[in-house]
Design a protein that fits this description.
Number of strands: 17
Radius of gyration: 16 Å
Helix content: 10-25%
Oligomer: single chain
Low-confidence stretches: 1-10
Shape: globular
Order of helices and strands: EEEHEEEEEEHEEEEEEHEE
Largest sheet: 8 strands, mixed
Strand content: 35-45%
Strand order of the largest sheet: 2-3-15-12-17-10-6-9
Length: 207
C-alpha cells in the first residue's frame, strides 16, 4: 500500500488519486491547543450513540460510537439504518461555518464518530448514499489519537494509498472520489487513546 507524502508544515495540499478524484490534506488546520479543547468538549457534550449496521446480510455492532447533527431537512442514512438528526451543537455549527467557507460548499450535516481506542475502526466503504448527490464533497476533521487512513480503488487492486490523520487535521475528499474509491480506518493495537472525527457533507432534502 503506497503512502502519500504529505508536508509537516501548516499547508493545504491537493493530491490526485485518479482522473477526477482528489483529496486535500492540512496536518494542522486547527492549532494543537484549540484542538485539545475541541476534543474534550466534543467527547463530553455530543450525544454519542451505539448502533448496528447491516454487513454481508447480518446486523453487527458498529465498532465505534456516532452521532448525526444537521439542519432539520438533512436526513441521512447508511448501511440500512436512518440516523436521528440532532440539532446543531454550537461547536459543530461553528466548525461547519468555517468549513463551508473554506470548501465553498453549503455543508448542512456532520457525522461525528468516536473511536474509543485502536480497537474501534471503520470498515471499507464509500460515502455514496443517494442523498449526497453524484460528486459529494466530504470534509473530515480529526481530533485526538493519530490514526492511519487507507484508500483503495474499487476496480484496481494495485491503486491503494494510506496517510496518517493528525490531531487538528483536515482531510477533504472531492470530485468523483466516492464513486471510484473506498476508504477505511483500520484497527491499531498500538493506539490506546480516543479519536473523534467530524465528517461534514451536504445532504439533499428528502422528497
Amino acid at each position: 500500500m503506497k503512502a502519500i507524502e504529505l508536508p509537516s508544515e501548516q499547508t493545504l495540499i491537493e493530491h490526485s488519486l485518479s482522473p477526477g478524484c482528489w483529496i486535500s490534506y492540512c496536518p494542522q488546520w486547527i492549532s494543537a491547543p484549540t484542538a485539545d479543547l475541541h476534543l474534550a468538549q466534543l467527547h463530553d457534550e455530543l450525544d454519542w450513540q451505539a448502533g448496528h449496521i447491516r454487513l454481508f446480510g447480518k446486523w453487527v455492532a458498529i465498532p465505534r460510537q456516532h452521532a448525526w447533527y444537521g439542519d432539520p431537512q438533512a436526513s441521512y442514512g447508511w448501511s440500512g439504518q436512518r440516523a436521528e438528526t440532532l440539532s446543531w451543537h454550537p461547536l459543530l455549527r461553528q466548525l461547519r461555518d468555517r468549513l463551508s467557507e473554506h470548501c465553498q460548499s453549503p455543508l448542512n450535516g456532520v457525522l461525528a464518530n468516536l473511536y474509543r481506542d485502536g480497537e474501534d475502526c471503520m470498515h471499507w466503504h464509500a460515502d455514496n448514499e443517494r442523498e449526497l448527490g453524484d460528486k459529494p464533497l466530504i470534509a473530515a476533521l480529526s481530533f485526538g489519537a493519530e490514526r492511519r487512513f487507507a484508500l483503495r480503488h474499487k476496480h484496481r487492486a494495485f491503486a491503494t494509498h494510506r496517510l496518517k490523520l493528525a490531531h487538528g487535521s483536515l482531510l477533504v475528499m472531492g470530485g468523483a472520489c466516492q464513486e471510484h474509491w473506498q476508504h477505511a480506518l483500520p484497527r491499531s493495537k498500538r493506539v490506546s487513546q480516543p479519536r473523534i472525527s467530524l465528517t461534514y457533507r451536504t445532504v439533499s432534502p428528502s422528497p
